[in-house]
Specification:
2 copies of one chain form a homodimer. Helices cover about 75% and strands about 0% of the residues of chain A. The first copy, chain A, has a single domain, classed as Ferritin (Up-down Bundle). Chain A contains 10 helices and no strands. Chain A is an all-alpha fold. The two termini of chain A are about 20 Å apart.
């Protein structure tokens, strides 16, 4: 498994001192996720179930929201999460596949992720939603480039529904709370580090399921980019990734 | 408070034996909820917060769903619940009012309802959603008749979004489970009786907030109709109301 820590460590090591075993002389070519051709059913089942799980977590976040304003925000994020889910279900239905059966194989990994990233309060829960939706929608958007062209545009449209507005709304609300409470800032920075590790495991599973022969080394640049995007998302909250 | 039990008792008593105190000789005219002119902000705040609370309960129901199929159904019901919520928020925004502030005054009654109607398992939770959404969307649709005509159509469209499909899907899934398990049938019939009492309290609060002078006696026929509709909804599950 590629973990966040090992990637950070490898990225930090200067390239010219990087050890390379003489027994592995092959050139590692840069890979884009769009170079993969994901199995459409597998791709859609994962992406749709992820949105369903995110909705479920948002329901819990709404329940523990500290104010009507934060509850309203949570409802707005859940609305677009379910709109994305619905768009992806429509694509599953187009293939003629059974919707629950198509999602079923992906439950274990995503349910496990969800159980570890619920968060202790609303701030942690909504940060989890922000980090997971940001990183994993990014992964699925990149993988979508390898889908048949008639599916590609509709899937990307579904994945992008409301995503930018959700991010802006969460950043605005969390930034206010963080700037008012330095202890919250340090707690959320720590929580963000935990979250990115767990989220990358789901990303890794999603990529592996789409392309069995995807090996860790060829994927390294992809993960480096995903982490860079995560770092930018944490930066916009004023938090160190 | 008008309770389900007192209404059932009064309805069961033959009209010609009905006692009427000599000190209260006035004729009780039949009232329609559409005769009331609800305050638009109060109406929208209640209706929108109700959908937000229903979404929250559905998030919990999704979490305890016994299968991917029932979880998928829960997601579909939550999707249209949040679509209704979003449509109502758009109406609040049109009035220029602040969305969370408009919903805030209605939290206590609805949160209390929600805490008493969570249900012990998915079957109870989804029945609660079916009973509450059915009865309360009915109340809000009737009250909408008293809204300014430019709001009326948009509000009714928002309230009706997906409602019929949700009912059909829940009835189909619950009926299967009920026919396979007589103990579930009797448990859900009991739970339905508890739910209708709690749901009518929310209905009563919604009507009272829309029309301060609404007295119990004039409203009795309205509640009788709401209960009759509830009985039909339970009938379609094969359950005695």
């Amino acid at each position: 498994m590629v973990s966040w820590k090992s990637l950070r460590a490898r990225r930090a090591r200067p390239a010219n001192t990087r050890p390379r075993a003489a027994s592995r002389p092959r050139v590692v070519s840069r890979v884009e996720l769009g170079d993969f051709t994901p199995d459409l059913d597998v791709y859609l089942g994962q992406a749709a179930y992820l949105q369903l799980a995110l909705f479920e977590s948002l329901g819990r976040a709404a329940h523990i929201a500290p104010s009507t304003r934060t509850k309203t925000l949570t409802g707005a994020v859940a609305t677009s999460t379910l709109e994305r889910h619905k768009g992806l279900l429509t694509e599953i239905e187009r293939t003629g596949a059974d919707v629950p059966e198509t999602m079923q194989p992906h439950r274990a990994v995503i349910d496990d992720f969800q159980s570890r990233t619920g968060g202790g309060d609303w701030y942690e829960s909504i940060l989890a939603s922000y980090v997971a939706a940001g990183l994993l929608n990014d992964v699925f958007s990149r993988l979508a480039a390898g889908l048949p062209s008639d599916s590609h545009d509709r899937v990307v449209t579904a994945l992008e529904t409301g995503a930018s507005d959700d991010e802006k709304a969460i950043v605005s609300e969390l930034s206010l709370a963080i700037s008012a409470d330095p202890r919250l800032a340090s707690r959320l920075a720590l929580w963000g580090r935990r979250l990115v590790g767990d989220t990358l495991l789901v990303a890794r599973a999603a990529i592996s399921a789409s392309h069995q022969s995807a090996d860790d080394e060829r994927l390294e640049p992809v993960f480096t980019e995903l982490i860079a995007a995560h770092t930018r998302r944490m930066d916009s909250l004023g938090l160190t990734a």
